[in-house]
Amino acid sequence: MAAHDSGESVEKDFSNIEHADSHTGSGNNVNGGVTPLLGKDMDPAALRHIHRTGSITMTPEMFEKIYLTPQSNVKGDLRKTFGNPTPLAILGFVMALTPFSCDVMGWRGAGGNGAAATGSYYYMGGLLMIIGGLLEWVLGNTFPFLVFCAYGGFWLSFASTLTPAIGAYGHYSTLYSEADPSAGLDSPQFAASFAFWLLAMALLSLIFAVCCLRTNVCLLIVESTLVVVFSLLAATFWQLAEGNAAVGSKCLVAAGAFAFITCAAGWYILLSLSLASVDFPIQLPVGDLSHIIKGAMDKQATKDGDDTQV
Hints:
The protein is mainly alpha-helical. The chain has helices spanning 15-24, 35-38, 44-53, 60-67, 78-81, 86-105, 118-139, 142-162, 188-211, 217-241, 245-277, 296-309; strands at 10-13, 55-58. Helix 6 runs antiparallel to helix 7 (118-139), helix 7 (118-139) runs antiparallel to helix 8 and helix 10 runs antiparallel to helix 11 (245-277). The protein starts with 9 loop residues before the first strand and ends with a helix.
């Protein structure tokens, strides 16, 4: 669905209803051309309202819930043409992070720093999030585009690091070969170097968390806990680089625990979006924050209104 250029609320067009009604010559007669399209039990007053406006308005809160970003005005009708890509990206995110969090916590004997799920990092976390992010860009949703592509890139990078054929850690060992593809993975230099990338991801997540103060509580929980996850993962590799395997192992388990909290919030968002996509009678709130922390343009509009009254 697209926001109009005039700054009005996002609306869904029902102009075809009036067109159908005109063929019947019914004017405002709700039993003329509209009832067969919308059902006999629909309130006549509501039908007359649709006749007058030609649309049904989506509230800013609903827009933020569906697209995980405050409502913005963009040209065109692409949001009416294409489906909502947000659930796809969230699906890819939780399907990659959930097995990773369980692996690093060692549940049911799991281990290997999540290497068993490398395929899901490529095709669920990486591919689906990149596709979702690019589609958000097409729809004009800048913040979801940035977030989804950033984490999609993370999953592709992480999966590539774990892929022996790429040999990211092989440069840290002279023994790296097809016979010994894991050589270099336990190198202190590799661990210390890898930690800086994780620290950069923590900083990026912190920036996203600040921006989420304008979105909703669930997404804020996701980004806030990711700051802790990436920080603990960086600490894990720095401890391993210094030979403190016991401390590094504790940091890794703690990172998995916070990642599991991230997953719980992510699964909740996915369920909420899925229910909304089929107009399920039970809707789950995500804790809209856009009306609590006003945007700069909203504050300026309020200020201009006050100045005009004065």
